Amino acid sequence: MPKGLKSLKDSLSTMQRQGLLEQSQKEILNKEEQMLLSNQKIGGTNQNLTVAELKAMADFYRSRLGDIVSLRMKQDEKIKN
After folding, report:
1. Who contacts 60 (Cβ-Cβ below 8 Å, separation ≥6)?
2. Residue 43, in any domain of the structure
3. pLDDT of residue 74
4. pTM to 2 decimals?
5. pLDDT digits (tens, 9 = 90+) for 13-72
6. For residue 53, is it within any domain?
7. How far is the CA of 72 from the CAs of 12, 28, 36, 76, 81, in angstroms?
8. How far is CA 54 from CA 29, 41, 47, in A?
9. Domain span at residue 51?
């Protein structure tokens, strides 16, 4: 394979992975929004969370889902190769 073609294929692959990551990050934000809009489900039906508790849960949720997305992408790369 010519060097220039390999470089282009590598660039395309990188851009595709970045696109998948961006889409996954968008999904995380959508899920976080759903969680925030239904915060009573986190604390139970009879308990309201404070803003600090809700923020801590949202931060954890975003962080953990981000980790999951990254790990899943790495796993997909291993499977693909």
Report:
1. none
2. yes
3. 81
4. 0.55
5. 999 988 888 888 888 878 877 776 676 555 555 567 788 988 888 888 888 888 888 888
6. yes
7. 20, 14, 25, 6, 14
8. 15, 11, 12
9. 23-80
